[in-house]
Amino acid sequence: MADSQLMLKRGPFRSTWLRARKTRTQLVLSRRPRRRLGTLRWCGRRRLRRRLLQAQAAGADWRESGCLVSRAATRRPKSAAPSRAPAAAPAPSGPASLPIPPVRPAGPGRALVLLPLEQGFTFSGICRVTCLYGQVQVLGFTIGQGQPAQEVFSAYTHSRLTINAVHYSMPEKSKKEMKREARALLRSHLNRDDRCWLMKNFSPLCSIVMLEQLKTSTVNFLVSHPGLSYVFVQESPTFQINSEHLALRSVGIRREKKKNGLRLTESALSAMEELVTVSCEVDGCPVILVCGSQDVGKSTFNRYLINQLLNSISCVDYLECDLGQTEFTPPGCISLLNITEPVLGPPFTHQRTPQKMVYYGKPSCKNNYENYIEIIKYVFSSYKRESPLIVNTMGWVSDKGLLLLIDLIRLLSPSHVVQFSSGRSKYMPNLTPDYVDDMDGLYTKSKSRVRNRGFQLAEFTESLEFADEEKESPVVFTGHKLMCVQSDFAFRKTPRNRESHNKVLRDLAVLGYLGQLQPPVPKPLCPLHGLTPYQVPFNAVALRIIHADVAPTHILYAVNASWVGLCKILDDVRGYANGPILLAQTPICDCLGFGICRGIDMEKRLYHILTPVPPEELRNVNCLLVGAISIPQCVFKSQRGLEGTIPYITTDYNCKLPGASEKIGGRETEETREEKVHPKPKLYRKIN
Question: Could you tell me if 533 and 420 lie in one domain?
């Protein structure tokens, strides 16, 4: 009986010791520390194992990692062979295994990161990155010493970003001279203790980065909504509270595993290198069309390519043809932008004003392909061919989507087509020049049919407005170079949750745009119902519902509390006395921005519009377009300071009403829905 009790006591002790032994093979503990280890609970053992793994990864002696088990565990056991531990743990050599943590606090809201050559720091959160010495890259954009700080946004909705130390040219100097030069550069940024810490661990070709706390009104507005605080930083129990953790927490970021960071395949890097070389030539203005199925990394490739190009040239043009997942505008738009600043975050962190934009009004072009093509032709006519153009396309590449893509290739005449493919994506034929020539598109014919029937390609592009020097020569399709990229992009989307995930990204883009309404930091956030709207008379603007046929008597119900496009049409609408003015057809016109119709005053016949568009631009607005892009429900549900019933929210909703189903825009799917389509006894309801 005593033996059995002894075995029961020794079982967990031995298993715990074996787990710790597997953690670090060169770990040697005497009898007393082993007894102390056996008395630890499971959380203490897990903490010990985590610390040992971190110490081993850092290349440090496990006894110097600070009170792992007990003071007795830090002494070398007498019974251990003197050569056993050094033989199992080779001495660290070079900067790749520093015996100190790579992050050091440098004051409130600041942290220093010392990166050896070709080492990276993967993180989540937002911060301002300044390169004090050396050269680093973030999402393909190079930040060198002396350059201005960059705002970096690493979100959980996308792959985490990594600050990578890259190779830079170094004159032939001794290490002592390099240290003297680095010390002089750091004197104006750091105190003496921080400089001494850096110089103690300095190595040639290393990079020193300062991370500072960053607060923007857009991010503050995003994370203020319930359920969105996790977008940038997710709190989780940690088993190591040390100076590094506290320093990163004060900045507002968190270290992530390297496997969670962005990784590009060799084919993607090779294609990118070739495109950058072509774009940097004397007359290098290639038209680069990026295509592929959904969730293969097209948008990530575009961001990386834009940043790589901005390392060498001053600007890049970008044509957005993906209605559902737009990069720089709210969803449902086709736009042309001139990009001069790096793109260091997901789309909802860099909403920008396009050079030309048209509001299509829906996240997909299905059942209205001709209007989609006409809008692209209208927007593409503003491209001046003064800088490289990147064309982003939809992920719909099967059936009619593939035929529509062939039409786009013939219309835009790209010089390079980057086609993404993945083992998990649907089959897509290689879009070689011969394949495009031999295939009929949705609105264009193949070359053989053109030759036989006498069809002129100019008929398809007759509405394009080219420059004067280009009107003399006809449009000739000279072919393109196909660049196939094999994607190993890891994503968590499945056909079952893809639509809901995309809906979240579209809502974040709308919230990112509405964040421009907030006052700049450090002023506190102001709720949307606390902002003063613009008053627009009924007879000053025309109305059009894009995505559905609405009876004229119900048109104002649909406009109230809706996401509206602020557009400019050529027709003069000032001749009407009262209004509202209704358009019979959806015009193809410039969209100057977006807003929320937060109320309608029937007595004074006024629309109340909330928008970040400046007043000088609003003077040109004479049309309001309402589409299937809806205001995120969190905007309605999380109205602070309200008492009683929340405006525009109801749980008594009849889904059988015309226009209330999910098929039209997929607008509302939960129990709580907006009251903008459901008839009300009282139309004018402000967000109090």
Answer: no
pLDDT score, position 493: 62
Domain shared by 553 and 538, yes or no: yes
Length in residues, the chain? 688
Same-domain pairing of 196 and 332: no
Give the domain extent around 283: 266-447+477-486
Based on the domain organization, do 255 and 277 belong to the same domain? no
Helices (H) and strands (E) in the chain, counts: 19, 25
First to last CA, the chain: 77
The better pLDDT of the pair 147, 22 is held by 147
Q: Do 256 and 275 fall within a single domain?
A: no
Judge whether 541 lies within some domain.
yes
- The CATH number of the domain where 342 resides is what? 3.40.50.300
pLDDT of 519 reads: 93
Give the C-alpha separation, 462 to 452, whole Å.
Answer: 21
Q: Do 207 and 301 belong to one domain?
A: no
Task: Specify whether 249 is located in the same domain as 278.
Answer: no
Backbone angles phi, psi at 598, to 5 degrees: -85, -5
Q: Give pLDDT, residue 9.
A: 41
Share of the chain above pLDDT 70, in %: 75
Tokens representing residue 116 in the block: 């050896």
DSSP 249-267: HHHTEEE--GGGB----HH
Q: How confident is the model at residue 260 (pLDDT cuts 50, 70, 90)?
A: confident
Contact 99, 55 (CB under 8 A): no
Which are the contacts of 174, defined by CB distance < 8 A and separation ≥ 6?
A: none
pLDDT band at residue 38, thresholds of 50, 70 and 90? low
**Maximum distance among all alpha carbons in the chain?**
104
Pairing of strands 481-486, 416-421: parallel
How many domains is the chain partitioned into structurally?
Answer: 3
Q: Say which range, 92-96, 180-184, 273-277, 532-536, has the weakest mean pLDDT.
A: 92-96
Same domain for 226 and 328, yes or no, is no
- Residue 537 in any domain: the answer is yes
Residue 427 lies in a domain: yes
Contacts 24+ apart (CB under 8 A), 84-87: 84/26, 84/28, 85/26, 85/28, 87/26
Measured CA distances, 123 to 1, 126, 207, 228, 308 (Å) = 55, 9, 17, 18, 21
User: In degrees rounded to 5, what are phi and psi of residue 239?
Assistant: -105, 10
Torsion angle in degrees (nearest 10) through CA of 28, 33, 37, 38? 110
Q: Determine the Cα–Cα distance for residues 416 and 279; give it in Å rounded to an integer.
A: 11
CB 415 within 8 A of CB 288: yes
Q: What is the pLDDT of residues 367-384, one digit of tens each?
A: 889 999 999 999 999 999
Given a cut of 60, is residue 42 above it in pLDDT? yes
**What tens digit of pLDDT does each residue of 449-462 get?**
655 443 344 444 44
Three-state secondary structure readout of 27-71: CCCCHHHHHHHHCCCHHHHHHHHHHHHHHHHHCCCHHHCCCCCCC
User: Which of the residue ranges 61-75, 169-183, 619-633 has the most confident prediction, judged by mean pLDDT?
Assistant: 619-633
